[in-house]
Design a protein that fits this description.
199 residues, alpha+beta, Jelly Rolls
């Protein structure tokens, strides 16, 4: 696991073993993730999405507590996966980092509770699996417009973004901050501390 520039975000870069039959790799190891995160990831839900080229999903996040940690992998095609620090008061607030996830290098991204998540499909039929620490709860789920110019995510040029109506209507980061929708860094750190203590 390699830590990204945002605390609570990691990328898993597995060794891939190809042979004449295909290839093999370990895409998830609980011990490695537990060590990186500082506590075990509770697995409450697994999701699968298929997207055509240009589909832009996110920026999604959930109220903390309990939040929703995610472990994300692209099993077919390729996506540009983006982690956004939307934790009010965080030392890296507003920072984002992108990682290409594809079916060649087989990277996976882990993001802790309180971080925002988005991705753009770079290929047709891009298929993504997510392991989630909490189940979907509509009342706790929120979004930020992924095209917010102040956020300034560098989405790939030459690909027209295709957003859902909900994501296109999502507030900017500044609007979400004014509406008190964002998780606080303090609350996220307190939640992680309780998880490390086994509470």
């Amino acid at each position: 696991m390699r830590q990204l520039s945002i605390a609570g975000a990691w990328v898993h870069e597995p060794e891939v073993f190809p042979d004449s039959r295909g290839s093999f790799h370990e895409w998830y190891r609980a011990a490695d993730l537990d060590e990186a995160a500082g506590h075990p990831m509770r697995l409450a839900q697994a999701n699968f999405s298929t997207s055509c080229r240009g589909t832009l999903r996110g920026v999604h996040f959930a109220d903390v507590p309990p939040g929703q940690a995610k472990y994300v992998k692209c099993v077919r095609g390729a996506v540009l996966d983006v982690v956004v620090d939307i934790r009010a008061g965080s030392p890296t607030y507003r920072r984002w980092e992108a990682v290409r996830l594809d079916d060649t290098d087989h990277r996976a991204v882990y993001l802790a509770e309180g971080l925002g998540h988005a991705f753009m499909a770079l290929t047709d039929d891009a298929s993504v699996v997510y392991l989630c620490s909490e189940g979907y709860a509509p009342g706790r789920e929120h979004g930020i417009n992924p095209l917010d110019p102040e956020l300034g995510i560098a989405w790939p040029e030459g690909i027209a973004p295709l957003l859902s109506e909900k994501d296109a209507a999502a507030p900017t980061l500044a609007e979400a901050e004014r509406r008190d929708l964002l998780p606080s860094y303090e609350a996220c750190e307190a939640y992680r501390a309780r998880a490390r203590a086994g509470d």
